[in-house]
């Protein structure tokens, strides 16, 4: 598994868009709000980050390969430095949940425009 596989999966989620921010980070967003970050871009990725629930934040940051995400930990973002920290299916589920958490904060109209159920 690679971080790129997670990025490819993130782009399959409803309303996902991509761009590069801060000159070196590949970002997946929904409704203009980030839900997945990886980098450095271009080049071989060394990490990725995504949003989790508060209780998962505490759990995951206590595991090898996970850490609080720089600059975003207070919003319950985790950074993954080892692509084998969890099985691919579990990492995909976390990325999907990050998408859902961020999409839930969008307006009803924005969610409808992106074909996202509330």
From TrEMBL:
Q: Does the keyword Transcription regulation apply?
A: no
Pfam families the record matches: YjbR (PF04237)
Record keywords: DNA-binding
Q: Which GO terms describe its molecular function?
A: DNA binding
SUPFAM superfamilies for the chain: YjbR-like
User: Where does this protein have coiled-coil stretches?
Assistant: none
| Annotated InterPro entries | YjbR, YjbR-like_sf, YjbR/MT2646/Rv2570-like
- Enumerate the Gene3D superfamilies for this protein: 3.90.1150.30
Q: Does the keyword Membrane apply?
A: no
UniProt-recorded name of the protein? DNA-binding protein (MmcQ/YjbR family)
